[in-house]
Specification:
This protein is α+β, with helices and mostly antiparallel strands. The protein is built from 1 helix and 8 strands, in the order H-E-E-E-E-E-E-E-E. The protein is globular, with a radius of gyration of 27 Å.
Length: 136
Amino acid sequence: MKNLTIALCLAIAGLFTFSCSTSKKAATDATVATATPMTKTAVGEWLVTVSDTPAGTVEANMVIEQIENAYKGNMIVGGAKVMIDNLKIVDNKVTGSFYASDYGVDVYFTMQYDAINDTLSGYLMDSFKATGKRKM
């Protein structure tokens, strides 16, 4: 009887230890999953509005992709797709350039990504105000 009591106590203690370590692991896994929120970046699809250009207000779709440690992108203006050259994102500052064949010029831009509002704002050619809203 004494051996049976000791065996039963050990079995209960073992089950208690196992269930505590399992629930602690599950709690740790849940903490890790909720403690690492998804970081917002400028990567994605944007509707960019450029104000007060010689052609008036112009809207364009801009796509920014990240491939490994580099960025690539394109602008779609009036149905024409042009690649963005020298696309960089450093400290949420997005810079690049593209060739506007309608005007025969290389257009460069600098826009700041606002992670809180999930928007872009800046200038094309240091003159024309540009704002971007993420496409959903």
